[in-house]
Amino acid sequence: MATMINPTETSVIIEGASWATYECLLEDFGDSRTTRMTYDQGTLEIMTPSYQHERLKSLLTTLFEAMATGLDLDFENAGSTTFKREEKARGFEPDACFYVQHVAAVRGKQRLDLTTDPPPDLVIGVDITHPSLGKLPIYAAVGVIEVWRCDGYQVHMHRLIDGQYEPAETSAILTGVTKADVNRLLDLSEEMTRAAWIRHIQAWAQSLE
């Protein structure tokens, strides 16, 4: 029997949940829900994002898109798409994710299926609520190249190497961009209007070429 443990204001973790239960919840809630679900070999997290969480997600999404645009990179924003692999007993809905290196493989598709489509190249995760299910092993299991994880204070980069994530100082997806750059530019969002901030990021990224 599934047992619920460690409830918090915005996150509930359930141990002993079956894959069928996970699939049923996804279907019952549908695409209109505000919750996000993560499944890892019998452990299910159901999370309702807070305003702080969504604000950081929005800022990081805008930051990535502005940098990629300044670098003249093609990309696809896959948002919080549900990705799942039944044979690995894992599923996740990232705060945001992008295709860059594999953008041609998903362009124009209306649905994505990890059994036939590549995983996103980069996942952005905001993790400011505890307890929280550790998601790096899930991303590694499906082959996400890079993860940006924000703890509410700063962004940490993780790069997939030999099936495991290692801390990284530079991005494997955005050439020339460092963790320090991401955190510095994110801090600037508190000092500038949004339009001016986006223009500044794009101009900065263009200067890297």
Automatic annotation (TrEMBL):
CDD domains per record: DUF820-like (cd06260)
Q: Which domain of life is it from?
A: Bacteria
Q: Cross-referenced SUPFAM superfamilies, in alphabetical order? A: Restriction endonuclease-like
Putative restriction endonuclease domain sequence ranges: 19-170
**Which Pfam families does this one have?**
Uma2
By its UniProt entry, which InterPro entries does this protein fall under?
Nuclease_put_TT1808 (IPR012296), Restrct_endonuc-II-like (IPR011335), Uma2 (IPR008538)
List, alphabetically, the PANTHER family matched. Answer: SLR2084 PROTEIN, SLR2084 PROTEIN-RELATED
Q: What is this protein called?
A: Putative restriction endonuclease domain-containing protein
- Originating species: Entotheonella factor
